[in-house]
Amino acid sequence: MRFENKVVFITGAAKGIGKAISQGFAEEGALLALSDLDIDELERTAKELSNVAKVIKTYKLDVTKEIMVEKVIEKVIKDFQKIDILINNAGVSTMNYFWDLTEEEWDFNMNVNAKGVWLVSKYVVPYMIKRKKGKIVNTASMAGKIGAPLLAHYSASKFAVIGFTQAAAKELAPYGINVNAVCPGFVKTSMQDREVIWEAKLRGISDPEEVRKEYIKQTPLGRLCYPEDVARVVLFLASDDADFMTGQAINVTGGACMH
Ligand code: NAD
């Protein structure tokens, strides 16, 4: 019960990694403020977690829309009076050779993955600064450390998340606020299900499952990553055990990335 009565605000909480993170916090006593663009899926997730969570509130949020972010954070503070932990997890991916990318595709990935992390942090941090306390964990990616083919735009957005994490960690250190990132590898979520189909098509591979097998071959520990693998590390970074860690980007890749 590391998070008894701690208020955690999570973006992209409806499914995949965000859902596993939400479940992890619920099991350890946190009060959950969950947000997602897909409010129907989020409501389903909240219903599932209501058996384990003490308190859950849901908020429809598009992390790319500043006015919406401002209003949602105000509402969370009204509902819970504080935010102890912020998890910037919402993210998107599309796949293409960079010379075939449209401006729209570039902006979509950069806006959700990079701008979204900045915007939500911008509106949460003043409440943490007032209390001189807080933990922020951003979901970056292995693609934020190694350029990933067919994902140049996504890689750029995740390198940006790590750069932002380091700068924010330095700016917020005097206020007792830690900012870290996790860098997942090949995680079995709906994002990966979409990616194997795109990648197979772009590379002329008939069976998308062959692409998934390649992901496993690139992973020394010999299996895909699961959302719970990532959630456990996120919870550690949000806990008191990580009090002397800030500005770090921690791989959860089964050894697929080692720097
Ligand atoms: P997912 O697609 O299963 O879930 C992403 C969630 O984010 C969805 O619920 C979606 O509705 C929400 N979302 C999308 N756009 C949003 C927006 N504009 N505002 C608010 N919410 C929005 O994906 P996932 O695999 O669980 O990914 C979660 C995070 O992990 C992302 O940041 C992703 O880039 C990162 N990541 C995933 C993998 C992987 O292999 N799956 C690897 C490394 C990093």
Automatic annotation (TrEMBL):
Keywords: Oxidoreductase. One of its GO terms (molecular function) is oxidoreductase activity, acting on the CH-OH group of donors, NAD or NADP as acceptor. PROSITE patterns: ADH_SHORT. It comes from Thermoanaerobacter wiegelii Rt8.B1. Gene3D superfamilies: NAD(P)-binding Rossmann-like Domain (3.40.50.720). Belongs to the short-chain dehydrogenases/reductases (SDR) family. InterPro entries: NAD(P)-bd_dom_sf (IPR036291), Sc_DH/Rdtase_CS (IPR020904), SDR_fam (IPR002347). It comes from the Bacteria. Pfam families: adh_short_C2. Signal peptide: none annotated. This is Short-chain dehydrogenase/reductase SDR. The keyword Oxidoreductase applies. One of its GO terms (biological process) is bile acid metabolic process.
